[in-house]
Write a structure and sequence with these properties.
Shape: globular
Number of helices: 2
Mean pLDDT: 77
Low-confidence stretches: none
Largest sheet: 3 strands, parallel
Number of strands: 7
Helix content: 25-40%
Order of helices and strands: EEEEEEEHH
Strand content: 15-25%
Structural class: alpha/beta
Strand order of the largest sheet: 1-4-7
Radius of gyration: 15 Å
């Protein structure tokens, strides 16, 4: 399920991998090539407040970890397409959520 929560809507990149039985609600951003797995739940009522910017070293480390994870998941795991939202469904759903919420 993808939908609003506390007057906020999720933003999901069309290249993200989102399973149909995952839950994405509210002020959640799912970026390019991100994964939301079966029964995964992402809910946010308000956008996060940044306490401090990431250092270059932290940013590089996070990017390296994310790239490794995505590569492994795409190389070694196979999913039935009907279990996933397609990029077109995600794009269309994002547009509809924006229209519905006047964004």
């Amino acid at each position: 399920m993808i939908g609003p929560y506390r007057d906020t809507i999720p933003h999901i990149d069309p290249s993200a991998l989102v399973f149909r039985n995952a839950t994405v609600l509210g002020a959640v951003t799912v970026g390019p090539a991100a994964n939301v797995w079966p029964d995964g739940v992402l809910v946010a009522g308000n956008p996060a407040v940044v306490k401090r910017p990431l250092t270059d070293e932290e940013r590089t480390s996070l990017a390296r970890s994310a790239e490794t994870y995505v590569k492994c998941s795409r190389d070694y795991l196979t999913f039935a397409p009907r279990l996933l939202y397609s990029s077109e469904e995600l794009r269309r759903g994002d547009e509809q959520r924006h229209e519905h919420n006047g964004v």
